[in-house]
Amino acid sequence: MAPVEPLVGYTVAITAERRREELANLLTRRGATVVEAPCLRILPVEDDGTLRADTVECLRKPVDYLVATTAVGIRGWFNASASWGVGDEVHAQLEAASIITRGPKVKGAVRAAGLAEEWSPESESNAEVLEHMRTFDLAGKRVVVQLHANEPRGLVDELRRLGADVLALQVYRCDPPTDLEPVLRLVAQVVERKVDAVTFTSVAAVDQLLAIAGRSAGQLLDALRTDVIAACVGPVTAAPLQALDVPTVSPDRFRLGALARTVVDALTSRTQVVEAGGHRLEVRARAVVVDETPVALAPASATLLHALVEHPGRVLSRAQLLEQLIGDPAGDEHVVEVAVARLRSALGPASPAVATVVKRGYRLAVG
Prior knowledge:
Strand order of the largest sheet: 2-1-9-10-11
Number of strands: 17
Structural class: alpha/beta
Radius of gyration: 26 Å
CATH architecture of the largest domain: 3-Layer(aba) Sandwich
Helix content: 40-55%
Largest sheet: 5 strands, parallel
CATH topology of the largest domain: Rossmann fold
Strand content: 15-25%
Number of helices: 15
Oligomer: single chain
Shape: elongated
């Protein structure tokens, strides 16, 4: 029998617009239930005149340094420049400049345009770019920084503080999605803990999700601080969440494949494995793997099993289980009996794992 995929029983949300299908495929191949809720639309700004005006300004005097931050951004700028008939001038301007590329993808885009980078950081972070730039005397130097979407301008501000004459090129902008309903549903799912992890691939997605959440933003943050994992593609994306006291997980390499593996590691660390009723139970968020056979669980069954697994071998009273199931220890005990019956039915051959202790309650029959 093939091993059960590691994310079976877990639900993961995607907030990105770009390449969300690729990330969704990476997660579903690992067994996850995926919720797609793009929190933004990334739109080129070439039509509103701003980028064109900035490009004309770029051509006005020699460029000493170009900081290229994203492949899609640098390609977008080169393509837009060509469409305006100034592509050759931009290319000639940059041939004489020192080009710094923030990572291998943008490095490839620069080389594809017939240009060559001088340096690229190992960490692919703005912090390392800035550290490198501080080794130069930037007073009066012309530095062009290509930004993507609503990227934080901390790098731009720091370069200006170092005396550089900085021109920030915003190649794309981020707008809210045309349909807010998927995002509003995601907010409710996170607040209700029906999602186990939320992935973020840009600061703009973080900002837009919190903005769309509105009055529910506090509850959303509470969930992300406690039960729901915030998985970010890198430290730049993680920074605004961390500033709000939200713990995050990120891969060492800022790639979608690495992000998917990080999600796997974070969620599988929550999987609990017990031997009960003569069977091996691998308890996940909304499923249990019984002797290598995955079994989907209804919400009440999942809640009940998690409560029992949290206290293996200990008897939990009906009042304690009612508190877990409906938040009222004085509720109708029939609710517990129904939930136990359904859990045993779902467990099948492993149903003896849930033992009745007469007049006291139920326990997980471990050992």
